[in-house]
From TrEMBL:
A GO term for molecular function: G protein-coupled GABA receptor activity
One cellular component term from this protein's GO annotations in UniProt: G protein-coupled receptor heterodimeric complex
Topological type in the membrane: Multi-pass membrane protein
UniProt xrefs under CDD domains: 7tmC_GABA-B-like
Superkingdom of the organism of origin: Eukaryota
Pfam families, per the entry: 7tm_3 (PF00003)
Residue ranges of the TM segments: 47-78, 90-113, 125-146, 167-188, 231-255, 267-290, 296-317
Name of the protein: Gamma-aminobutyric acid type B receptor subunit 2
InterPro entries per the UniProt record, alphabetical: GPCR3_GABA-B, GPCR_3_C
Ranges of residues in domain G-protein coupled receptors family 3 profile: 53-328
Gene Ontology biological process terms, A to Z: gamma-aminobutyric acid signaling pathway
Amino acid sequence: MTGDLESVVVGRISPDLTFTFEPGETEDTVWPRGVPYDGVTVNEEVLAVHVALTVVLTFLSCAGIIFSIVCLLFNFYFRNTKLIRLTSPNLNYLIGSGAILLYLAITVTVWPATTATAAGVLCNLQVWLTGFGYSLCYGTILVKMWRVYYIFNNPNSQKKKLHDWMLTLMVLCFLVIDLAMLVVYSAVQGSRGVLGAERVDDDETSNIEEGHQGIPRDFYVYVCSSLARDIFLGIFYGYKALLQVCGLFLAFATRKVKVKGLDDSKWIAATIYITSIVLAITILSLYTLGGLQNRFSGVFTVGLFIGTTFIMAFVFVSKMHTLLRDPDGKRVFSKSSPSENQPPSS
């Protein structure tokens, strides 16, 4: 081959601008690799959460779920001991179940999704798991704190006793409110569910040119979006923030309540303070880091993990430690003594 080019007639254009192939020529013979694109070639790529971040957060999520199951088993096994009975073991089941949902929400948030359908499903799962998990986990803590407030701040021999089933109904009311908001908004959205997925430019990855021809390569990510998204999230998380404010009030009002050997209200108050800070940071990330997929996923999920883990640690690990030191619950309601901080004799 000499490398010289020669013209080959493959078709003709008539005066009325109609193109006609020469005999024996077709689109397949002229363009065996397909008709070339008439425009600027751009390679597009949809990115998911960075694989390292996905692996780390998924591991934390699984570890949290296992930790929650261990706590629930502990609660079930020791449910008849004096110490655990005083902490309302039936309500503790709700807290543990809510924690599992919140840990699952971490995995859902960072799970890779490179199609609009998959991203839309994950967006909806994230909202449902977070909403129900929060109401079960924090809502139960709130009603337990309210019972402490009711007992110690309203001395009245005629007042009605608050049973666990009454507090459980209150938690169910929180869940019904969540369900109502999600169902109504889903009906407004139609087939998109609560939130759909929208493809936007990836603000964390710069577009590049590749190849000797400098073909542009653009990067995109899927973000959760919906009609009036900000209004919905404002109402949904504003309701959660209102519960936090109620919890802060109850924690402050019962700050002087102390039960020898138990201190359940102290741990619950600490949980409310910490989760309030975490919730504020998490809500801010929704509005400020929405287009920064990796940063949003990191802040949002780490906030969920820290808040949920603190709740489980304060509610269950503190009881494990106390039960280890006082298996028979002899120190509960006991009078102060110089040796009260020493382990019980065997």
